[in-house]
Design brief:
The chain is α+β, with helices and mostly antiparallel strands and 344 residues long. It has helices at 3-8, 85-101, 110-139, 142-160, 167-179, 211-215, 221-236, 239-247, 249-258, 263-275, 283-293, 298-304, 312-316, 332-339, and strands spanning 12-19, 27-33, 37-42, 47-52, 56-58, 66-70, 77-80, 188-192, 199-201, 206-210. The strands form 2 sheets. It has a 7-stranded antiparallel β-sheet, covered by helices on one side. A 3-stranded mixed β-sheet has the order 8-10-9, sandwiched between helices. A hairpin with a 4-residue loop joins β3 (37-42) and β4. The N and C termini lie far apart (63 Å).
């Protein structure tokens, strides 16, 4: 697409009606024309979808209102009314510009074919996977991360079993969520009976906590330490980035095009998460986290190694080893309710 065509329509916006699939109701949205995409946001400025300008099709050429959909998904539609002629003209101009840039059938010399194929192979194998993954991490909105996390949770729970629930235990988890919030967004805590060593954070913010960690300790400090470690791992290495790295290039492209990942990719990633222990964190990172959330590090350290030999750095650097006045993690009553969440 020519740069001049893009520059002419930068920051153009219009009102429209968007439908995510054939069964859904149409929603009032705002369409923004960007450098390479149409961005669809609702009236509360929440991003609902990104459409690539190179993959937009018109269902009713010349018709009014103009009806567009992603090239491979006619169920998702965008209806732009007659009063938004400037946006319709911009989309048509850019679609035509894309069409003019597409290669035309013709004869190519053998050397040119070999060079082109080699270039494609190099781009696909060396540059495109990382670039596509980085782009996906930038454009996938928080609500889509939560959706992916929920889909992944379904596969994880085939091994861990369903989350434990009791009215009192669930209420105690809600208190713990407020006491130990992530740096961005919010987390949702679940206690599961098996499959998780300490605490495992999925993309979207769900953290699975081992029931043994809850039931085998006298205070909430150890559980809090495991949750802090899960938060810190997510800050160090985005869970969605790990998922996309495991899934591969074609799944990343599928996510960008359709907003979803295949069940096969999610199932394989779930198996990897539960099979591989979480990466250890440096003591300095953990100590910084315990200081940020105002939690003692020593109980968590001894839970990892009862002798204290391999966790001496955490014990000696505990920022609250000699501090008695700390915000409570949970009240005694809430801690007892949480310990009984799995019926133990």
């Amino acid at each position: 697409m020519k740069k001049t065509a893009l520059q002419q329509y930068q920051r153009l916006e219009a009102a429209a009606l968007w439908r995510p699939d054939a069964e859904a109701q149409r929603l009032d949205v705002i369409v923004s024309l960007g450098e390479a995409t149409l961005t669809i946001t609702d009236t509360r400025d929440r991003v609902k979808a990104h459409w690539s300008l190179a993959a937009i099709a018109r269902a009713n050429p010349g018709g009014v209102p103009a009806l567009y959909h992603p090239d491979a998904d006619p169920g998702e539609t965008l209806e732009i009314a007659e009063g938004e002629e400037e946006m319709i003209a911009a989309i048509e101009t850019l679609r035509n510009a894309v069409a003019r840039q597409r290669p035309r059938p013709g004869r190519l010399r053998l050397a040119g074919m070999v060079a082109s194929l080699l270039g494609v192979v190099l781009v696909v194998t060396l540059w495109l996977p990382g670039a596509a993954r980085d782009h996906a991490l930038r454009v996938v909105p928080a609500v889509k991360r939560v959706e992916i996390g929920q889909a992944l949770l379904g596969h994880v729970q085939r091994v861990t079993g369903p989350a434990c629930r009791t009215p009192g235990g669930t209420a105690a988890l809600a208190v713990l969520e407020q006491r130990l919030p992530p740096a961005r967004g919010r987390s949702r805590l679940m206690v599961v009976r098996s499959g998780v060593g300490e605490a495992l954070r999925l993309t979207g913010g769900t953290i699975l906590v081992s029931a043994d960690l809850v039931e085998d300790h006298d205070t909430a400090d150890v559980v809090a330490g495991a949750i802090i470690a899960a938060h810190l791992r997510a800050e160090t290495h985005d869970p969605l980035e790990r998922l996309l790295s495991d899934a591969g290039l074609w799944e990343v492209l599928r996510l960008l095009a359709t907003g979803s990942l295949s069940d096969a990719a999610l199932r394989a990633h779930a198996e990897t998460l539960l099979r591989a222990p979480p990466a250890p964190l440096p003591d300095a990172t953990l100590i910084t986290g315990f200081a940020r959330w105002q939690v003692r590090a020593t109980p968590y350290a001894y839970a990892r190694d009862v002798t204290g030999e391999t966790v001496l750095g955490l014990i000696e650097a505990d920022p609250f080893a000699r501090t008695a006045d700390l915000p409570p993690i949970l009240s005694d009553a809430d801690w007892l309710r949480l310990q009984g969440i799995c019926g133990g």
